[in-house]
Amino acid sequence: MGQNGYISLVRENKTYRKFWLAAFISMFGEWFNTIALFLIILEYTESELLLGILMAVRMGSFALMQPLFGLLADRVNRKKLMIITNVFQIFLALAFIWVDGPEDMWWMFLCSGIMMALHGLYVTAERAALPNIVSEEDLTTANALDSATWSTALCLGAFAGGLVVSEFGVTVAFIIDSITFLIGTLLLLPLNVPQTFDKASSGSIISSSLKDIWIGQKRIQSDPRLFRIIFAKTSWNIAGGGLAGVFLVLAGNNIDFVGTALGFGIFFFARGIGTGIGPILARKFFKDSEKWPRLIGLLIVVSGLFYLLVGFSLKGPLLLTLCLVTLAHTASGGNWVLSTVLTQQWVEDEMRGRVFSTDMLLMSIGQVISTISAGYLIENGYVNLQQGILSFACLMILSGCIFTIWNPKQKHTTHGYTQVA
Q1: Verdict on whether the full-model pTM lies above 0.85
Q2: What does the mean pLDDT of the chain come to?
């Protein structure tokens, strides 16, 4: 049986439809408040380094607990985990309303970090659950749509956040943000999300956590192909974190004819369009999964080449720069969806949460290093905006080349586990 198209999948699979809508609304909320936080930092501190630190705190929080989140996603009902994370974020989003000066930066960063940690648990549970609510034939379609959804949420969330902040201020933005998490929770409540558990991992989560996490790491190390593929997103983010999380923000701040918040939103809008188009094009044109492992590295190189052109285009027409940003993230979106599908196809249900948590941990560490480095370099005058973009683009190209050349030999092993419904 052939795979469904996007519309057919959403129309015919009722569980997936609500699952997909809940994920979109929750991710929209994550990006909606980001623009407001950027504006607050620049308004109260005028510090480029703090922009990088905010992104580092968010991604560090996303990464720090990933081994435990992966275990939870394999040991605890995934739907419940997703609902719990949304409920907590309803109240955390409202807490930002009380930020009133530079002295509040520390707890604003703390709340933002907690929100991102909860989002990390949501994403890990959501990605591990996805293969259980769609057929194997529809897995690539569902992942392409999932990645496009993340991108659309980024695109619309950041742009809408910029508009709302520009017109109504940050307080209204945080109230709307809180409502998005409430809606996402209500959509998840009636769903039935199947899950397989590993009998070997029964017992207390606290007492068995280290053993179970180690089992997940052994699963990764047992397959050289899998060990390589979990570095796919990291290989982009080691440079892409600084490019997208710091330099694009500053580029948006430099647009003269719009307000700062809307300037942020415009560049994030271009980024979101690209990461939305990429997975759709990858599904359409790259049908031979045997070629995906090498293609993933080439897509990192292509993304870096477009960012190189972004650096040279900064003093030219804004539309050209935005188009190049879109193309750079089109390539990165392809990298993301192909590496995600391969991981889902290669890993068993009862191990998938732990493997994805390692994937997210490595990606987040790369992004933390990248964003702090970018913020530090530009705040201390070691590079200007153009030099920063050009140097990080070259780093991305180098990273993509290394990943492409890395070609470990495959092992043909069978991993057997006792499953229960």
Answers
A1: no
A2: 82
- Model confidence over 155-172: pLDDT tens digits? 788 778 778 887 888 888
Supply the DSSP symbol for 137: G
How many domains are contained in the chain?
Answer: 1
Distance CA 226, CA 229 (A): 5
CA–CA gap between residue 51 and residue 383 (Å, rounded): 16
What is the tens place of the pLDDT at every residue in 233-248? 889 999 998 998 788 8
In angstroms, what CA-CA distances link 1 with 4, 135, 138, 227? Answer: 9, 10, 10, 31
Q: Is 331 within a domain?
A: yes
Q: 57: helix, coil or strand?
A: helix
Q: What is the pLDDT of residue 420?
A: 32
Number of neighbouring beta carbons within 10 Å of residue 247: 29
* Lowest-pLDDT range of 199-208, 258-267, 355-364, 384-393: 199-208
Reported as half-sphere exposure (CB side, CA atoms, 13 A), residue 111 has a value of: 22
In this predicted structure, which of 235-244, 312-321, 412-421 has the lowest mean pLDDT?
412-421
Residue found by looking up tokens 């996490």 in the block = 213
DSSP line for 110-173: HHHHHHHHHHHHHHHHHHHHGGGTS-GGGHHHHHHHHHHHHHHHHHHHHHHHHHHHHHH-HHHH
H helix and E strand count, the chain: 17, 2
Q: Are strands 197-198 and 419-420 parallel, antiparallel or unpaired?
A: antiparallel
The C-alpha angle 174, 175, 179, rounded to 5 degrees, equals 115
Tokens 């994030």 belong to which residue?
Answer: 268
Amino acid at 17: R
Q: What is the CATH number of the domain that holds 12?
A: 1.20.1250.20
DSSP 264-321: HHHHHHHHHHHHHHHHHHHHHH---GGGHHHHHHHHHHHHHHHHHHHHHHTTS-HHHH
Q: How far apart are the first and last CA of the chain?
A: 25
Question: Is residue 399 domain-resident?
Answer: yes
| Calpha distance 75→204 (Å, rounded) | 10
The whole domain housing 112 covers: 6-189+221-410
